[in-house]
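$ fold --in a.seq
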Amino acid sequence: MPTEPGRRRLAWRLAAGVLLALLVLLAWLLATRANDVKPAPSAPSAASAGLQLFGALPIAEAPPVESRSQLLEQVRRFDHTYCSYLQNTRYPHESRPASHSPDQMQPNLPVLESHPMRLDGGGSHTEVTLQTAQSRVYLAAGESVSFSLRAQDSRGHGAPLLVTRALAQGLTYDARRSTPRMTLDFLADGAGAWHAGLTPAHGALAQFHGTIRTTVGYRAGGKDGVVLFDVLVSPVLPARWSGKAAEVEANGSLDYVLGLDVDQPGRYVVTGRIDDARGQPFALASFNDVLGAGAQQVRLPVFGKLLHDGAPQLPLVLRDVEGYLLREDADPDRLLLPRLEGRVASGQVRSLDGIANTEWQSEERSRYLAEYAKDLRQARTRLQQLDPAQALPASACAPPGR
């Protein structure tokens, strides 16, 4: 008969055997469940399942085999990426075709809107449509803006309208700042429209920098409505235009050079519109660089290859120039320059002799093109290795071997 220590050893052995049997059973159940959910090439053994249970990493699955249709789609996608980038970076950022930015080619057109009458206090009156216009959104120091509104009934006919109040007020998000305001006088023109002008420099808003909101209350269709007009105004000019703008040939391109007397040095952003001799919008030229104090030059380039590709009727015309001093980490983020409306400079060049016809190059462009070309080349190689008998699809732009 076993002694007491012998009985204890026997009990421990039985317990250990039961625990081992339970672990093996549990591992088998886990392996079986895994097989039911996703069949594997071969069922894992109970021992390997037990290793996974106690933290061993599972064996990685082999990547799926790509079909010809998948590889063909990759080739087409990479080819599109390469060709699109190649096409869209032929010209530098500061000299772009007018067709790329049609919304920026007429900066001095009035802002026109039409919407159902908004009731004072909320809601709308759908039987009356309010039509509004404002001459501009950005105001440099000393500039003015005009507002107008008219009403129409549901049949599109003019509806009687009466302006009851108009208040222009500077917006602020700091309760400690004062909020200057001034009233505006809207006058009827006898044809159903009401008009008013705002010159912030004349009145309580003379020193305000930021957004000025004009709230106009009116009555139409037997109800009281409200409409809002917003403008961004700068009370100080950071620089002033000087001299006469001129067209010059430089580095194979045409540059329009403008003088600027800078009071506040910093990064200036200037944009001008270029028309051809027939008055057709041709290009958007821009300047974005740091200027020091004193007499400076702003150059608005028309890139040589853009001239060759677009073939505008010469000479060109620079018009509608606007700009600002960028104030980083500040609100508002800009101080506006006086706008130069209409024709600013007339060109003299009447032929493209001496104008370069080469694509723009930069370190960034070369780096991106090399990376996109590598992706395309690798995709074409995988497709050819899968089915050597089939011809590779032609590229939309890449030279052979890409």
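$ fold --in b.seq
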Amino acid sequence: MSAVDALPMHVLVTGAANGIGAAVCRRFASEGHRITAVDQMVDGLQRLSDDIAEKSDAVAGILSGDLADEAFAEQVMPEAWNRWGPVDVAVMAAGVYPAIGFLQLTAKAWDRVQAINVRSVMQLTRSLASLAIANGRVASVIHISSGAAQRARPGAAHYSASKAALEMLTRSAAIELGPFGIRVNAVSPGFVEVDSPVNPVTEAYAAAVSVNPLGRRGRPEDISAAVHWLASKEASWVTGAVLRVDGGASAGTIALPMHWPDQTELQIPPATQSGRDGVDTHDE
């Protein structure tokens, strides 16, 4: 039986205390699925758990710790599996985005970003796959990427590199785990207003990075809807994909004017000669 056909599912979400992670938890909880919420912010996790208990019949377990800690990241999945049952869906929404100019970027700062944004995702994905295979189960894994994986920006060399690596990790895991019935996909959000105490941004930055063809900033619910679809049976033939949910921002820029209002003489195609290739082009 496919994991997405089993109700209720057990959905584990990292970065669950606020923003996209919290929205993902609430979306699945609204359908009665069991949630394991993982984050370093205990107060935020408790508020989320209380909110879910108040608004649904779902149960939200809490695991608190720093995913940069290799030992903690290694034991998250087994603990959730043993305490609350087999995990059907894992959503990796945890991430850090410190603004550090390239000339000020240290190895220590680089390593922390990679540890949280990439290494912990690898550990949790591998751990879930190992448990699912050992128990004859299938699973769906969704990584949360970023447009920064494709477009560099000042002060984000470490972050952009981590998200580019994450997208290749998604593809690599998908081709190796697909034969076991484990799907691995990613959602790449555009700018989403999350009011994060972990990753605050200035309004000037938000205004610059949130320009897109649809003309509005993203909401956490826009991303949770995409995650929900990828975990569903409707996406059962989708793996190794990176779904861009960004208001069209990755399609191109709308911030530039027309580079030249008219065609130059040499840009205009020459008039077709009458009778060429047997085609009569004269006007009637």
